[in-house]
Specification:
Layout lengths: L5 H14 L2 H13 L4 H22 L4 H23 L9 E6 L7 H12 L3 E4 L6 H11 L3 E5 L3 H16 L7 E5 L5 H7 L3 E3 L2 H12 L2
Parallel strand pairs: 1-2, 1-3, 3-4, 4-5
Length: 218
């Protein structure tokens, strides 16, 4: 295959993500790398634009969670192919670092996983702490990773109060001012975010990525 085929490969990867076809994205991502395309350029030219389309379709109601999950899997399939090559480079074009997790007592992860994919698709490095994460673990990750943003998720009203505990723990540890805190989940609202002193609230996954970019002005 000739170098001239790179634009076609990039377009195939984009369409694979938009259509939720993991087999397509992984195969064409590997071919693009073999043709010499820099790994982060695949993020910039294929994955990020594709997830932008998916996010817009989610916000407009054209895509729902099943479609977004398929696109997320397709993007992650491409990302798995890119990771080894990216680890060998010194590329520092990421828009920022995010630590993400579902708060203590809550085991729901679909929404959190969608937020992770949207953030990755927008060009952020993301450390996902998983579910049922205590405040102390969030604080430790902020100290260790020094992220630009800490993203907290909760689906249950009885667990969203743990978000307040995380903000308080950050303040007690003296690292609240070093990170922007954003919150989201089915039971969370802008009023609650304001009440606990969060820096932002996102109603769903696509808007979480936009919020992160606005907070960091990237």
């Amino acid at each position: 295959m000739q170098k001239a085929a790179l634009p076609e490969l990039v377009e195939s990867i984009r369409q694979g993500v938009i259509e939720g076809r993991a087999d397509v994205t992984s195969r064409f991502t590997q071919r693009a790398l073999e043709e010499g395309m820099p790994p982060f350029d695949l993020y910039l030219n294929a994955l990020i634009p594709a997830m932008g389309v998916v996010g817009a379709r989610m916000q407009s109601g054209e895509y729902f969670i099943p479609e977004v999950l398929l696109s997320a899997k397709a993007m992650e399939a491409a990302a798995e192919v890119i990771k080894p090559a990216l680890a060998r480079t010194k590329d520092e074009r990421y828009k920022g670092k995010v630590v993400l997790g579902t708060v203590e007592g809550d085991l729901h992860d679909i929404g959190k996983n969608l937020v992770r994919v949207m953030l990755q698709g927008a060009g952020f490095q993301v450390m996902d702490l998983g579910v049922d994460v205590p405040a102390e673990r969030f604080v430790a990750a902020v100290k260790e990773v020094r992220p630009d943003i800490l993203a907290l998720s909760a689906l249950l009203s009885i667990t969203m109060v743990k978000m307040r505990d995380v903000v308080a723990a950050l303040e007690s540890a003296g690292c609240r001012d070093s990170v922007k805190v954003i919150v989201g989940g089915a039971v969370v609202s802008q009023a609650f975010a304001d009440d606990i002193g969060a820096d932002g609230y996102a109603i769903e996954a696509a808007s979480a990525a936009e919020l992160a970019k606005r907070l960091l002005e990237v």
